[in-house]
């Protein structure tokens, strides 16, 4: 029996979804890709008698008759081209399987003859990487590859008011939103219409309970998101999503800022390598996807109760092990914490005896003014997430890490440049060949879940004390001197005018830092506002850190 595995992966998802700064088109693009991935691709595969292993997160895997694999791949590509109006594409790769006895349970066997299923899946992933890099694309795929050419120019041609890239072909307007009136290209028109279709689906939608859901059943993206909210949040409500970024002013006490949260699974490639059968592959993909939706729903239900019929959040991208959401700035850190913690808990519950599959999330939070260009905010989010993932890379099993950036003033878009503003290294030569290195870090980012929980509790206590902004700003300026002597002297001078309870609270954050790291007090050297953890008596290098700058930056942006 000759069969093959065929894997699909959507190309440049973020480029298609985020090539506009308009919220409705971003949502529409995300909804289109979700429908194509979870519904249309599966429907086409079923026409060819294929067996679905998984289809979520922009990728899919099917078991199909080897003779039909190429035709299946081509039809899915045509579907993406048609439904996105040329805005998105998808790449496929095919891995033939060795002939095997049809009586074998292909889903649960680890070997086909002498060939391991895990090796075949690894080879399939390699083929897919090569195809996406256009290094080893089949001739039939090469013929359909789109090549970018320069667009013609003419004074009577108008570019799209949404993406600014393609030429406009339609004029759209909405009676209830004058801001949406304008000229749109064919791609953005499709996104806009998709968002309107989702809006109609949400009208008068009430919570529906599902005792069991078949994996192959497709639910529209927003229906599935709402399914995981608390039932009481939705009963009898006509639900509306934010019309634009400025709508978030209605949900927040801090009306000028918005929070962008980007979460991504850690070391997923390494996790996939431990799977031995197609059934394990299917179960893992389903578990990750379900856990992410459940964690997202729980985090929103806990921290963002509905404001009348208005949803106080927006989901820009979700599926697989990725989620990007917009929330009020004052709840962003709590949502990020609950999202990462709930996801990790779900995986531990599902795989209690398999540590290798107990996945975690890296999360970035960018707090920026509502009028700040969204493209720049997303760029910051990508860099902040990358820094969190880099911090967790040395671990055999990366922990959940949360990194954040607060956009104030002229902030650098480069992660390295931002770190240089918060770090300084000085050398003291004690001989011609030996130096004592002292490093100052004005932040503890990225935070583990225990660390973020500790920081949030201090922020909650600090809010009750109503610490003055001027005092905190002076303390921040002293810390950014990044010097032992000057910083210590200026910090103590600044705090002389503080009330006793305020001074005690701030000093205890550093003096009791050993509680966060679960270390004996004598192992932590305190030189307020700095602390340094002694690894050994022979270590001549010191790293001085402080949690106070992180506390100060978040103080005005976290509400309880």
From TrEMBL:
<keyword id="KW-0547">Nucleotide-binding</keyword>
<dbReference type="GO" id="GO:0000166">
    <property type="term" value="F:nucleotide binding"/>
</dbReference>
<dbReference type="InterPro" id="IPR054767">
    <property type="entry name" value="Cas10-Cmr2_palm2"/>
</dbReference>
<dbReference type="InterPro" id="IPR043128">
    <property type="entry name" value="Rev_trsase/Diguanyl_cyclase"/>
</dbReference>
<feature type="domain" description="Cas10/Cmr2 second palm">
    <location>
        <begin position="257"/>
        <end position="392"/>
    </location>
</feature>
<keyword id="KW-0051">Antiviral defense</keyword>
<protein>
    <recommendedName>
        <fullName>Cas10/Cmr2 second palm domain-containing protein</fullName>
    </recommendedName>
</protein>
<dbReference type="Pfam" id="PF22335">
    <property type="entry name" value="Cas10-Cmr2_palm2"/>
</dbReference>
<dbReference type="GO" id="GO:0051607">
    <property type="term" value="P:defense response to virus"/>
</dbReference>
């Amino acid at each position: 029996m000759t069969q093959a595995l065929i894997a699909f992966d959507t190309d440049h998802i973020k480029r298609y979804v985020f090539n506009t700064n308009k919220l409705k088109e971003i949502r529409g693009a995300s909804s289109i890709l979700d429908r194509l991935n979870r519904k249309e691709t599966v429907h086409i595969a079923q026409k060819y008698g294929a067996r679905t292993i998984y289809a979520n997160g922009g990728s899919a895997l099917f078991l199909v008759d080897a003779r039909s694999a190429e035709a299946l791949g081509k039809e899915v590509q045509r579907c993406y081209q048609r439904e996105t109006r040329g805005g998105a594409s998808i790449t496929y790769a095919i891995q033939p399987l060795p002939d095997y006895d049809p009586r074998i349970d292909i889903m649960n066997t680890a070997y086909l003859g002498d060939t391991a299923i895990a090796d075949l899946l690894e080879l399939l992933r390699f083929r897919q990487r090569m195809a996406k890099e256009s290094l080893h694309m089949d001739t039939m795929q090469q013929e359909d590859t789109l090549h970018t050419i320069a667009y013609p120019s003419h004074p009577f041609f108008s570019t799209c008011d949404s993406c600014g890239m393609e030429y406009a072909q339609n004029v759209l307007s909405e009676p209830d939103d004058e801001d949406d009136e304008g000229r749109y290209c064919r791609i953005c028109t499709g996104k806009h219409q998709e968002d309107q279709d989702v809006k109609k689906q949400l009208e008068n939608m009430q919570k529906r309970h599902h005792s069991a859901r078949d994996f192959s059943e497709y639910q529209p993206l927003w229906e599935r998101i709402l399914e995981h909210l608390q039932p009481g949040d939705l009963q009898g409500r006509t639900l509306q999503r934010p019309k634009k970024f400025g709508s978030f002013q209605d949900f927040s006490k801090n009306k000028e800022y918005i929070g962008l949260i980007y979460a991504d699974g850690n070391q997923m490639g390494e996790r996939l390598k431990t799977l031995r059968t197609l059934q394990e592959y299917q179960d893992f993909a389903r578990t990750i996807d379900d856990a992410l939706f459940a964690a997202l729903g729980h985090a929103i239900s806990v921290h963002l109760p509905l404001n009348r019929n208005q949803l106080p959040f927006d989901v820009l991208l979700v599926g697989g092990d990725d989620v990007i959401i917009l929330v009020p700035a004052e709840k962003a850190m709590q949502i990020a914490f609950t999202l990462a913690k709930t996801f990790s808990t779900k995986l531990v519950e599902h795989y209690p005896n398999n540590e290798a599959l107990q996945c975690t999330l890296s999360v970035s939070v960018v707090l920026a003014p509502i009028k700040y260009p969204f493209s720049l905010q997303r760029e910051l989010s990508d860099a902040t997430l990358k820094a969190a993932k880099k911090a967790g890379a040395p671990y055999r099993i990366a922990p959940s890490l949360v990194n954040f950036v607060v956009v104030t003033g002229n902030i650098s878009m480069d992660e390295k440049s931002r770190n240089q503003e918060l770090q300084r290294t000085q050398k003291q030569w004690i001989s011609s060949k030996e130096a004592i290195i002292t490093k100052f870090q004005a932040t503890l980012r990225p935070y583990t879940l225990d660390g973020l929980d500790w920081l949030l509790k201090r922020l909650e206590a600090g809010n009750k004390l109503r610490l003055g902004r001027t005092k905190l700003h002076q303390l921040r300026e002293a810390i950014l001197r990044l010097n032992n002597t000057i910083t210590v002297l200026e910090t103590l001078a600044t705090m002389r005018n503080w009330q006793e309870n305020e001074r005690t609270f701030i000093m205890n954050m550093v003096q009791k830092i050993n509680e966060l790291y679960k270390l004996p007090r004598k192992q932590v050297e305190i030189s307020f506002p700095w602390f340094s953890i002694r690894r050994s008596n022979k270590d001549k290098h010191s790293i001085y850190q402080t949690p106070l700058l992180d506390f100060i930056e978040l103080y005005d942006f976290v509400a309880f």
